[in-house]
Amino acid sequence: MDIIPTPKKNVIMDATTLSSLMSCGRYHDLRFNHRFIPMKGKSNSLEVGTLIHKVFEVYYKHIIQGFPRNTAIGQAMAAGQLWVTGCASCSDLTNEKPSCGHEAGEYPGAQNTPEENQDKNIGWKFALKTCEEYFEFYKNDAFIPLAAEIVKGEVLYEDDEIRVLWKAKLDLLIDQSQIGVLSMDHKTFKQKRNKSTLSNQFLGQCLLLKSRNVIVNKVGLQTSYKIADRLSREVVSFSADRLDEWQSEILPYYAYKYIQYAETGYWPPDYTHCDTMYGPCSFKEVCEANRNMRVELLRNDFQLAPVWDPTNKGTDE
User: Fold this and answer.
1) pLDDT value at position 195?
2) What is the pTM of this model?
3) Which residues pair with 317 in a beta bridge?
4) Taking the CB of residue 108, how many other CB atoms lie within 10 A of it?
5) CB distance 165 to 11 below 8 Å
6) pLDDT tens for each residue of 179-204
């Protein structure tokens, strides 16, 4: 009798979905399966980070296309202003195909970012000024930008039962003469801290690019520091063994766990990540409520986001 082989189960992951699965099954289910995001929008830190990402994206894309540097800066700053004021068409998350030609949510308008710095909130004027100072500070960059905000994907693990496709959105792909072709990842921060190598994002990027290095392009948002003390670029490196462990052990372990949760329909909460350095989990109050009240909280305090995909603009966690 012929034995019909069982089809392999395909799992698609990126750094955001894997990290959420590692931290809390319930969070992953609510955010990515049910697509809930808070009505109140992103935190001030995330909004400012997304704003600066947008300015850098437009700048480097224009440089890659051969525009003069002054033109690239002008277009980038104009994009930053549009991000703040918002685009009526694409700011509506329910509009999957905005008439403006932008991606859904690409220019949402600032919800939790004031014009000027207030208390612990960074103002959008300070954020845009930081971008201008960044362009001046790095006016003599020697690397060659190859692509900005691109998505790469590759099967990083496969056995008899599963196949794991890893996808990553790269902020900037560069040719650095001393290191080679690698990813440069923009990171904004309010407090100085060393970047950890325990990063699903950086490990995945290295494997996709067949590299052992990622450059972290740090942009500080401390109002009391001069720009020279707020900008730095740090090379994060991995050994071949670290990369192999993540690819052959850690990634498939969580892929199987994802399949288990999906097949049982139960996504267990993990109460060790309810409060982080960036603030409380957006679903903390939902978990604190009785089971019969959670649907009501989700209905009143959350809205539906576009289907998660690394290419979505302005929806990164």
Assistant:
1) 64
2) 0.89
3) none
4) 23
5) yes
6) 889 999 999 998 776 667 889 999 99
Return the axis-axis angle of helices 251-264 and 15-23, rounded to nearest 10°: 70
Closest CA to 127 of 193, 47, 224: 47
- Listed residue (138, 102, 161, 149) closest to 230, CA to CA: 138
Give every CB contact of residue 50 below 8 A, 6+ residues apart in sequence: 42, 83, 314, 316
Which residues, 6 or more positions from 221, have their beta carbon under 8 angstroms from its beta carbon?
Answer: 48, 122, 126, 127, 130, 188, 189, 190, 230
* 179: helix, strand or coil: coil
Residue identified by tokens 């792909």 is 173
d(CA 46, CA 61): 22
Structure tokens at 68: 């003069």
pLDDT tens string 136-167: 999 999 999 999 999 999 999 999 999 999 99
CB 55 within 8 A of CB 217: no
